[in-house]
């Protein structure tokens, strides 16, 4: 056997011996690191904050883990289950709520960031027994099937109508200087593109939003 083969053999032998030693440490429970290294390990404490959230015109004071999303607070701590958890990555729009009148994805924001903000969920859109015009329009035009995405669709549409009223253009807007942007079907589809419907009820969703927009103009 050549000197090169001996070196290769030794290398393989060293690898096998090292593997056996590692297996022995694991099975006997012997420490794999020094006590000094273990002492230097950082322990991460849970940080909580007392936060008052104004949701649907009512104040709720909560002691929150600072990492908790607004979505989880609304659903699991306040019982506002109209806010849906879909993708949990800000891609489907099922968790859309209004914060100070603007639509956001509740799964992408931390609850502690919204103290003193006005938060509105689907439960807060109606006035007592009187439905919001968008809610009535979705019923009249059959703008939902399974209904899972509907709360997010309606909250998003409410924010979208206000954006159009203020003259905020979209990628589908032809006249960027228009004071009052006409909400064509193309405009509505573009502005609502962040809200997905797995039942594909899009044609009726567009009709419902267009009807509500027309009623608002009247």
Describe this structure in words.
The protein has seven helices and five strands, in the order ααββαβββαααα. It is an alpha+beta fold and 218 residues long. The chain has three domains: 37 residues, no CATH class; 81 residues, Ubiquitin-like (UB roll) (Roll); 90 residues, [2Fe-2S]-binding domain (DNA polymerase, domain 1, Orthogonal Bundle), CATH 1.10.150.120. The protein has a five-stranded mixed beta sheet with strand order 2-1-5-3-4, with helices on one face. Helix 4 packs across helix 7. The longest helix is centred in the first third of the chain and has 26 residues.
Number of strands: 5
| DSSP helix fraction | 25-40%
Report the major sheet: 5 strands, mixed
CA-atom Rg in angstroms: 28 Å
Overall geometric form: extended
The number of distinct structural domains comes to 3
Task: Give the CATH topology of the largest domain.
Answer: DNA polymerase, domain 1
Secondary-structure content class? alpha+beta
Distance between the termini: 97 Å
DSSP summary: helix tally: 7
CATH superfamily of the largest domain: [2Fe-2S]-binding domain
């Amino acid at each position: 056997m050549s000197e090169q083969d001996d070196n290769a053999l030794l290398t393989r032998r060293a690898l096998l011996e090292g593997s056996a030693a590692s297996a022995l440490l694991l099975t006997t429970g012997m420490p794999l690191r020094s006590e000094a290294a273990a002492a230097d390990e950082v322990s991460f404490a849970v940080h909580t904050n007392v936060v008052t959230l104004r949701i649907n015109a009512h104040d709720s004071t909560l002691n929150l883990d600072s990492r908790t999303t607004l979505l989880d607070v609304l659903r699991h701590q306040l019982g506002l289950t109209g806010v849906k958890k879909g993708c949990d990555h800000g891609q489907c729009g099922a968790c859309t709520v209004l914060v100070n009148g603007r639509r956001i994805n509740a799964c992408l924001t931390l609850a502690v960031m919204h103290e003193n903000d006005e938060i509105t969920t689907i439960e807060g859109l109606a006035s007592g027994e009187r439905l919001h015009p968008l809610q009535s329009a979705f019923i009249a035009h059959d703008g939902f099937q399974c209904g899972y995405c509907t709360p997010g669709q309606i909250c998003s549409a409410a924010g979208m109508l206000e954006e159009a009223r203020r003259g905020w253009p979209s990628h589908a807007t032809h006249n960027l200087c228009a004071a009052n942007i006409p909400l064509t079907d193309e405009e509505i589809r573009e502005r609502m593109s962040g809200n997905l419907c797995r039942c594909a009820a899009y044609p009726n969703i567009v009709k419902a939003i267009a009807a509500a927009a027309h009623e608002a103009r009247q």
